[in-house]
């Protein structure tokens, strides 16, 4: 591994890597079909899909595989897409012609891809089924029940169920919530082990992976050239998958995506208490706009995330901020030891719809980013859309690329301030409704 790679943050995930090992830095000039920039879920899943389809691929990561949001997140694979209402309104010319059906199918495509991949490549990532989406206020119950009805109408009746407030106490030892939607099609997992396992599978399929190799320039043309400090990759096609961490293609992408710092804590192992507070090992998230989310780890810790810092900077003390929320959720854990705390940057798009497109004068440099906190499933969906487009089937890609993504004026300088103000407004609306 090249020396400039930043180490993983001190997370529970980094402390429980299942498949150790690293990849070399790029110190040569290579020629491939596709160069993918960024080794998170978007980049790794795209590289793997393309290799499975027979393309020669190089994947270039500035730090370590899964170093960004993909190796730091809550590990909840949700059956909802960010910006879903907008997608239904703005998507045009979708394959099959029925936008509602297309969006419904998208909701579950990420889960299918992840499950198949874990099985096919034997990825050890603590994959489990079962989510609770818990109503924070009585006023949130109706929307959850409408979602339940929609799922039942589409044949998912055996996987979804409404849990009344009283019954909920048997599943979660918490005084919060007014009922919950249980969904056993949704997954939770160890995201760093998933992305590293997928990278290993990609390498086995012939993908040349480089760590510690920040891309400093993209030279557009046919072919295009991706340049690092010590080497370069010449490729027919380039995919930019740097999420909230990259600063490439500013002319097209500046002012459209804003990093929000999200924090997570993990307690010490809870022993028997883990089973008492969450006996069925379900992943939980609430219905607020800026929500709390949590689940147990394989070794019986509570992994708890919540809130967000929209300033674009990391918060000073995540544990101090999250402990009161954790203890309000589970009073039985008052004073529990916190073993790990960390933060990561999620890419927020103002209209919350995933951003896919091409950048530069040609049509061979693609980008995909901005899943607004729903990226575990969405990144895998997007990777399948990108791979298909690069393979010559661009119908889905074109539908996404046609979505309207405005530029926030002066967004590069003031975008995060505007985002923070917008979020404060939404939270205010939420408290008075
Ligand atoms: C704390 C936290 C909790 C979250 N919880 C959930 C959750 O429970 N469920 C869910 O669905 N989503 C969640 N998300 C969102 C999800 O993690 C992201 O949407 C998703 O991982 C984004 O993947 P990505 O590959 O696009 O970006 P990233 O994983 O951020 O990867 C981008 C990579 O590109 C690399 N890079 C950047 N610039 C360059 C360059 N110039 N050259 C080379 N490489 C470069 C970076 O080093 C990084 O590794 C959470 C996010 C955070 C931060």
What is the average per-residue confidence, as pLDDT, rounded to a whole number? Answer: 92
* Number of structurally distinct domains: 2
What structural class do the secondary elements suggest?
Answer: alpha/beta
Assembly type: single chain
Name the ligand types. Answer: flavin-adenine dinucleotide
Counting H and I runs of at least 4 residues, what is the number of helices? 12
Q: Would you identify the regions where 5 or more consecutive residues have pLDDT less than 50?
A: none
The third-level CATH topology of the largest domain is: FAD/NAD(P)-binding domain
Q: Could you state the order of secondary-structure elements as H and E? A: EHEEHHEHEHEHEEEEHEHEEEHEEEHHH
- Mind summarizing the main beta sheet? 9 strands, mixed
CATH architecture of the largest domain: 3-Layer(bba) Sandwich
Net shape: globular
Task: Provide structural commentary.
With about 425 residues, the chain is of the alpha/beta class. It has 2 domains: about 15-75 and about 190-255 and about 350-400, FAD/NAD(P)-binding domain; about 130-190 and about 260-350 and about 415-433, D-Amino Acid Oxidase, Chain A, domain 2, CATH 3.30.9.10. It contains 12 helices and 17 strands. The chain has helices spanning about 40-50, 85-90, 100-120, 140-155, 165-170, 190-205, 250-255, 270-275, 320-330, 375-390, 395-400, 410-430; strands at about 30-35, 55-60, 75, 130-135, 160-165, 180-190, 210, 215-220, 225-230, 230-240, 260-265, 285, 290-295, 300-310, 340-350, 355-360, 365-370. The strands form 2 sheets. Strands 3, 4, 5, 6, 11, 12, 13, 14 and 15 form a 9-stranded mixed sheet that branches. Strands 1, 2, 7, 8, 9, 10, 16 and 17 form an 8-stranded mixed sheet that branches. Helix 1 (about 40-50) runs parallel beside helix 10 (about 375-390). The longest helix is centred in the N-terminal third of the chain and has 23 residues, at about 100-120. The mean pLDDT is about 90. The structure holds flavin-adenine dinucleotide.
